[in-house]
Write a structure and sequence with these properties.
Layout lengths: L2 H9 L7 H11 L7 H13 L40 H8 L1
Length: 98
């Protein structure tokens, strides 16, 4: 059985697997395979284009609801810190200005 056929078979199982689990299964059966998660995702997209729905377990956090306003963390309230010298305290800046 070819690697492509193995991946297609694993993508259409009743019990879903993650992309990484599919890659690990392929590497146990075919140690010389250079299959990666991106490759398996590509195979899944080809199945979707062909009209089939691959059964894949996605392990990513749920999206936040857009109607709820989320507060930004306190350290990010003024925007990201820029690289370079560390910022001087207000007292130190006042001494330089005076």
């Amino acid at each position: 059985m070819t690697i492509r056929a193995e991946v297609a078979k694993l993508l259409q199982r009743k019990r879903a697997m993650t992309y990484q689990q599919i890659v690990d299964t392929i590497h146990t059966k075919h140690p010389e395979a250079r299959t990666s998660v991106k490759t398996v995702q590509w195979y899944a997209s080809r199945l979707r284009v062909g009209g089939s729905d691959p059964n894949v377990l996605l392990l990513r956090p749920g999206r936040k609801r857009r109607d709820v306003k989320h507060e930004r963390p306190q350290e990010a309230a003024n925007g990201p810190r820029k690289r370079g010298r560390p910022r001087k305290s207000k007292a130190a800046r006042a001494k330089v200005a005076a």
